[in-house]
Design a protein that fits this description.
Two copies of one chain form a homodimer. Chain A is an alpha/beta fold. Chain A contains ten helices and twelve strands. In chain A, the strands form three sheets. In chain A, strands 3-2-1-4-7 form a five-stranded mixed β-sheet. In chain A, strands 10-9-8-11-12 form a five-stranded mixed β-sheet, with helices on both faces. In chain A, a hairpin with a 4-residue loop joins strand 5 and strand 6. In chain A, helix 8 crosses helix 9. At the A-B interface, helix 8 of A face helix 8 of B.
Amino acid sequence: MKKFGFGVDIGGTTCKIGLFETTGQIVEKWEIPTDTREGGKNILPDVAASLQGKMRERSISKEDVEGIGIGIPGPVQTDGSVPVCVNLGWKNVHVPAEMEALMPGIEVRAGNDANVAALGEMWQGGGKGCKNMVMVTLGTGVGGGIIVDEKIVAGSHGAGGEIGHITVNPHETVPCNCGRNGCLEQYCSATGITRLAKERLALEHGETLLDKEEVSAKAVFDAYKQQDKTAEEIVEKFAGILGRGLSNIACVADPEVFVIGGGVSKAGEILLEAVQRYFKKAAFPSCVDTRFALASLGNDAGMYGCVKLILK
Amino acid sequence: MKKFGFGVDIGGTTCKIGLFETTGQIVEKWEIPTDTREGGKNILPDVAASLQGKMRERSISKEDVEGIGIGIPGPVQTDGSVPVCVNLGWKNVHVPAEMEALMPGIEVRAGNDANVAALGEMWQGGGKGCKNMVMVTLGTGVGGGIIVDEKIVAGSHGAGGEIGHITVNPHETVPCNCGRNGCLEQYCSATGITRLAKERLALEHGETLLDKEEVSAKAVFDAYKQQDKTAEEIVEKFAGILGRGLSNIACVADPEVFVIGGGVSKAGEILLEAVQRYFKKAAFPSCVDTRFALASLGNDAGMYGCVKLILK
């Protein structure tokens, strides 16, 4: 096996690049700006120049490189082509073909950024040692990634792992960003938790550490850690919705572990415990012991997953 | 590639056996009784004797046989071993190892019967031409099978594709067979549809073709085809629950096609149309055009899938 691999996680403002040993050890990481001008035509050439510079600097030949994995903030086809990527200004970019033309002799693969982040967590993060995993990213929205037998389930329309848009409440009247109503993301994202908190605080007449005007998901979990009763109610509601939602996912994909990441997951073990408690109550009998773990690679997960993408 | 493969779908009373060309063409099928006495110890030897007899009869040598695929009515581990199978009386049977000892020189693989039936429908049935499929079996219960990239998602606890046990109504007070409440199967199986019908008929004061005492899923769909208003209400309720349930599965596995099989699916296109209509309303935008198809292999699906299991 060749010794090195590059992971390139392209975001709307910066590209996070990592040089890895194929064993999973990170050697060095750095960032370059993402130039989205002119339909993003400079993005891949800029990345290629950066990788070539690094190879010269460290005297790494192309024979030493197993490949380059690239994460894209949008839908990616199975062959690595990108029909449209609004965040990068791209239309019809075949990432492997264009990148291989810039870096002859090195294999290139591409995947969606949320999916490669899940793969990264499976390989070297919270799901290390597992082959079947569901990643749940609780950020501004709720994202996900389904890994079956070490491979991403991208889906036939790029909607594999779009678990934030599972309908958990068909009676919801407030619309989700996707245009539908009652999606998991409306209750379990940072924004969703804030909304749950505001609704609860509007009814509050007792004492609470939470401030009606400046409540946030973080404030809720901070108050929860101090046993604030109102925060407890909000967290129980959040955990009930998420735990039950994940129990339904277990009846489809039946993973070994749910790995919880994203900004909200910084609340830590106390969040896992609450969600897992509701999951156990709701789960199909054979799945009650499914493990829960926190994501551990933070913003580097995508880079890791990009490298895993190119390993055979 | 070798020319032939055997598919053996072991049931609690009979084993359905098929000799196939590896192209997917069935050459001959027959059945032998399943002998569940003495912990089912004769089952695999009986199957082996039947296969050897057929090979002699048709002058097929082991060099002509790609392999033997075996479907088991219970949970099967990834390596083909079966910890417990109540239907067969088995405890700790390593199907490939035991069968290969009986049929030296021929490769053997085993899978769960519902999962191999899904694989069969993907290979030569309603999902032909697809690599990503969700099979929905509406029988006495509701079963399923998730196929990703032509492979079964068996799950870490054998619960992959247990879609009948997705909770669709947390407020349900009647318990499901699994001990929980509000599972999809409680509304969308033949039994579930009968229950919906009885509940509706208890409130009926007008005219209907349906008989309160002898209603069945088949009677409901027959009356639906004759535009019976009461049957329409029942079918709309069933289709709404199933369509919304499948829209949530699409946010996880995002298949190209949902293939609907099992006894209830004999209602035909009219059932597909109703379910798909609710699916489209509920689905995540990128999935609204997911195809729906009827299963087409009937009880032979398992045999087909067993053969597909052994093809590289």
